[in-house]
Design brief:
The complex is a heterotrimer.
Chain A: H1 2-21, H2 25-45, H3 49-74, H4 86-110, H5 126-135, H6 138-158
Helix pairs in contact in A: 1-2, 2-3
Chain B: H1 3-24, H2 30-56, E1 65-75, E2 78-86, H3 88-111, H4 118-137, H5 141-159, H6 166-197, H7 202-211, H8 218-235, H9 244-247, H10 253-262, H11 267-274, H12 276-280, H13 283-305, H14 310-330, H15 334-361, H16 379-392, H17 399-413, H18 419-444, H19 452-457, H20 463-478, H21 493-497, H22 499-512, H23 522-544, H24 549-557, H25 559-566, H26 571-620, H27 627-648
Antiparallel strand pairs in B: 1-2
Helix pairs in contact in B: 1-2, 1-4, 2-3, 2-4, 3-4, 3-10, 3-15, 3-20, 4-5, 5-6, 6-8, 8-11, 8-13, 10-15, 13-14, 13-18, 14-15, 14-17, 14-18, 15-16, 15-17, 15-20, 16-18, 16-20, 17-18, 17-23, 18-23
Chain C: H1 4-24, H2 28-53, H3 57-87
Classes of the chains: A mainly alpha, B mainly alpha, C mainly alpha.
Chain lengths: 163, 649, 100
């Protein structure tokens, strides 16, 4: 079981690296899908089966498809490398490494690997999530529905050819 | 009517007059302006007489009267009230000042008729009177200083009255700045006084000084005395701060008469006299006062010998006579100094006013070489001028004789008297007589050297001007009779009158210093001074009456000395080289170029602007419009913040 | 048992990679994809915490994050389309008119 996590982790990381390394947007999109699926597996391992499925259906299945559609629509080609700010070049990698290091240090100090036995895992079934969603979090739920409506309208207006 | 109410009434009319004329005067007619001004001065004079009468008939005798009206300064130990003080010395001073001021106000009605700025003149003149009276009646040093500064201000305003004339406004500035140096001394002295005695009220301070055992605080008191004398020397034009007074003749003649002969310049003498107890306990300082007074008297009279400008000569004569007053105070006969102050106010202001009358007749000309024989056309002016000349020369039976003689007697046998000072004073008396008769001869007697165009204009002045001349002439004769000398069998009433004021000081001095004069009696002394006067008069008349050949030949023979005297010993040039020019250079080359333009404008003002622009220019590049760089900055911020949280927390 | 910190480490790595990619990439669409990567890293952290604390709130939060991410992706892509139509470029370097 634990091995599976590490495999998925490694996969996710490699695919993420690929996302940022690939010049062609289509390849980046595909690598991102791999990341999403790896993460879905990890969610399963963590007992969040509903979320894992949602991840795959919504995120990988709808959002990424949208991305691919747009890439195709706009005929996004290879990225050309033009002038780069020298600051970014020299400061970029150290900065990012520092950032990562800081976060890891924070995490490590707060949650040392030797942990006491964790509480029993929650029930990640749709029923449980549904209960919580429609009881405690019903207001955010309704609001997000309006949010989606607004987003749809906005996307339509923004992408129109002419008014 | 009690004194509490009367004393402010003494001060207020001139202030009100100054305010009314100052604010509304432009719309008034000349008659209205002069009515307000002269009425204010006259009212002050009447109140002064009333106050004097009330004070003299009150049952408390010669004790001083003091009343505090309200607290002006209260800061820790320092307390200065608006409080007025009245004793016999104040009586003498107020009567002298108000009478002379009133007469001069009347005279100015005629004199300033055709000059511009009529209402401005009278406003300033009234303001001056108010300040002078404040100075005299103040009950503590700070209030006195208010009057002190006030008269300095009015002096500046009135000297520079013809402000469009460069020399006049320069003279005003010179007067103010030179007296400022003296004022610094005054302030230091007063500060030391407060530091030592914790009070500045006259009665309290003088009582405390009087109670001191002899010798205590001697050093401090000497320092205070010298510092205060510096202030007096500035205001009363003694060495080395006399240089402003001759230049002050740029002002209208009534100003010269009132301020620079009778009142303001005597403020220094009043200051020293008022602080007599202080000087009695600081005899070294008092000795300095006497010596400086004596030397100034001689010095100024030598310069007066060679002056050709009538008013300038009178100015040096004033400096010389002021020296006499300080000499009197300095040898311990304060009453004699004040006596001379009073008589000098009468005859010197008369001399100036008469000079003004001459100036009017001569269409503005003041060079005595262009005058002569004026007594035929200007009868009253000549007569009064003659009387004043007799008075100042120390001719017996005229006012100046009595007062000058008392001072010389004091120099010989007074507590701090020195024999050489006596001979110095006598010599100066001779010189005074000489140059005054020189002036008289050159101006009024002998052949007329007047230029033809001016000769047409010659006329005696109207009664508005000659009236006051006559009044002052009368005072110049009888003014001295208040103190008939002992040597002639009199009781020296004036001295005895001021005994309550100066008694403690004179007694302290007598106890501490026993001076044994060499045995010339009072009568012998008097004879010497009369002799000196006669020699001076005789020489003056001999040389200058019929023709001016003799002095002219002498001037050619001793050309060098003559030049030095005419140029006033080149003191002004010396001061210019020593003080004025270096300050000018410092101001221009350093303070202006370096400090103002360079440091303040350049570094602070422009520099601040440029730094802002530069920094702004640099910071502007962050806002590049490039989204990726924005993201990078955000990341940087996050990294730094996390660093702070992790490490420092 | 995989300790919590490992999950969080993975989450951190994904987030940092997303952030780095956001700065590095010049294509607008790739940049939006890197944003999605960052969001996913955060989601993982939420789910991990939800597991190790024993309640479902973390997962609920992920639910909402996914919803919002969808909306945001839609609108963002619409904007990119509009920009491409007006400026004929998908390069972030060219979209810099909001500068001083």
């Amino acid at each position: 079981m634990t091995v599976l996590f590490y495999i998925c982790a490694a996969l996710a990381i490699l695919a993420a690296l690929n996302v940022i390394r690939q010049r062609t947007p289509v390849y980046s999109a595909l690598s991102l899908i791999v990341v999403l699926c790896a993460l879905a597996l990890v969610y399963l391992l963590l007992g969040a089966e509903f979320m894992a499925v949602i991840q795959v259906i919504v995120y990988a299945g709808a959002i990424m498809v949208l991305f691919v559609f747009v890439i195709m629509l706009l005929n996004a080609g290879k990225e050309t490398s033009r002038q780069r700010s020298r600051l970014a070049r020299w400061l970029g990698v150290p900065l990012v490494t520092a950032f990562l290091a800081e976060i890891l240090i924070a995490v490590w100090s707060q949650f040392p690997p030797v942990a006491a036995s964790p509480p029993p895992p929650p029930d990640g079934s749709p029923a449980a999530i549904g209960t919580l969603l429609f009881r405690s979090y019903v207001l955010p739920f309704e609001v997000t529905s309006i949010l989606i409506l607004v987003a749809v309208l906005g996307a339509v207006v923004l992408a129109k050819k002419e008014f | 009517m009690n004194l509490e109410v009367l004393l402010p009434l003494l001060l207020l009319p001139p202030l009100v007059g100054a305010a009314v004329n100052g604010i509304y005067g432009r719309r008034f007619s000349q008659g209205m302006v002069s009515l307000i001004a002269c009425a204010s001065a006259g009212l002050s004079m009447l109140v002064a007489i009333l106050v004097a009468w009330t004070y003299s008939t009150t049952s408390t005798g010669p004790a001083p009267f003091s009343h505090s009206y309200f607290t002006w300064i209260q800061a820790g130990d320092l307390r200065a009230d608006v409080a007025l003080y009245y004793d016999r010395l104040t009586l003498v001073m107020t009567l002298t000042v108000t009478v002379v001021a009133f007469l001069i106000h009347l005279y100015s009605r005629g004199y300033m008729e055709h000059e511009g700025g009529y209402y401005r003149f009278f406003s300033y003149l009234n303001l001056f009177l108010f300040m002078m009276l404040t100075l005299i009646t103040a009950a503590n040093y700070p209030l006195m200083f208010v009057g002190w500064e006030g008269v300095g201000l009015c002096s500046y305003l009135l000297i520079g009255f013809y402000f469009r004339k460069q020399s006049a406004s320069d003279a005003g500035k010179k007067a103010f700045i030179v007296t400022r140096i003296g004022d610094a001394g005054f302030t230091v002295g007063v500060a030391l006084l407060f530091w030592t005695f914790k009070t500045l009220d006259f009665q309290t301070v003088f009582a405390r000084i009087g109670e001191l055992p002899p010798g205590q605080y001697a050093g401090t008191l000497t320092a205070i005395g010298l510092a205060i004398f510096l202030g007096a020397a500035g205001k009363s034009a003694q060495l080395p701060l006399y240089v402003w007074l001759p230049d002050a003749m740029e002002g209208p003649t009534p100003v010269s008469a009132l301020i620079h002969a009778a009142t303001m310049v005597t403020a220094g003498v009043y200051l020293v006299a008022r602080s007599s107890i202080l000087y009695a306990h600081a005899p070294k300082a008092l000795a300095v006062v006497g010596v400086v007074g004596g030397l100034t008297a001689l010095f100024a009279s030598t310069i007066a010998l060679a002056q050709n400008d009538l008013k300038r000569m009178l100015a040096y004569s004033t400096i010389s006579q002021l020296g006499y007053m300080f000499l009197g105070c300095g040898v311990g006969v304060f009453a004699a100094g004040i006596f001379h102050l009073m008589t000098h106010a009468f005859f010197k202001s008369l001399l100036f006013l008469a000079a003004g009358s001459v100036m009017h007749a001569m269409n503005g000309e003041l060079d005595m070489r262009k005058m002569g024989g004026l007594r035929h056309k200007l009868r009253i002016t000549h007569a009064t001028f003659f009387i004043a000349t007799l008075a100042i020369s120390g001719v017996p039976m005229f006012a100046g004789f009595f007062s000058k003689d008392e001072i010389l007697a004091g120099a010989y046998e007074g507590p701090l008297g020195q024999t050489w000072l006596y001979w110095l004073g006598t010599l100066t008396a001779g010189l005074t007589a000489f140059y005054m008769f020189r002036a008289l001869c050159l101006t009024f007697w002998g052949k007329s050297r007047v230029e033809p165009e001016t000769a047409h204009h010659l006329h005696e002045s109207g009664f508005k001007m000659t009236g006051p001349l006559l009044a002052l002439a009368f005072l110049s004769i009888v003014g001295g009779y208040v103190s008939w000398p002992r040597a002639l069998g009199g009781g020296e009433a004036f001295d005895r009158y001021l005994e309550p004021v100066f008694g403690p000081a004179e007694e302290a001095l007598r106890n501490a210093h026993v001076h044994n004069p060499e045995g010339l009696s009072g009568g012998a002394l008097m004879t010497f001074s009369v002799l000196a006067a006669c020699i001076g008069i005789g020489l003056g008349i001999w040389w200058y009456w019929k023709s001016i050949d003799t002095p002219r030949k002498l001037a050619q023979r001793f050309a060098g000395l003559h030049e030095v005297l005419i140029h006033k010993y080149y003191i002004d040039e010396f001061y210019n080289w020593l003080i004025v020019h270096p300050i000018h250079i410092l101001s221009e080359k350093f303070l202006w170029r370096v400090v103002d333009q360079g440091a303040i404008d350049g570094v602070l003002v422009n520099g601040a602007g440029e730094v802002s622009t530069e920094v702004g220019g640099v910071l502007r590049r962050i806002q590049s419009g490039n989204i990726r760089s924005y993201a990078a900055w955000v990341l940087l911020g996050a990294v730094l913040w996390l660093l702070y949280v992790l490490v420092i927390h | 048992m995989v300790p919590l910190s490992h999950y969080l480490a993975l989450s951190a790595i994904l987030f940092v990679l997303g952030g780095a990619g956001f700065i590095i990439r010049r294509n607008m669409i790739s940049v939006v994809m890197c944003i999605e990567l960052m969001l996913n890293g955060v989601n993982l952290a939420f789910i991990a915490f939800s597991r190790f604390r024993g309640n479902l709130d973390g997962q609920l939060f992920v639910f909402f994050v996914i919803v919002v991410a969808a909306a945001e992706a839609a609108v963002g892509l619409a904007i990119i389309i509009a920009v491409q139509r007006n400026r004929d470029t998908l390069d972030l370097e060219d979209v810099d008119s909001m500068k001083l």
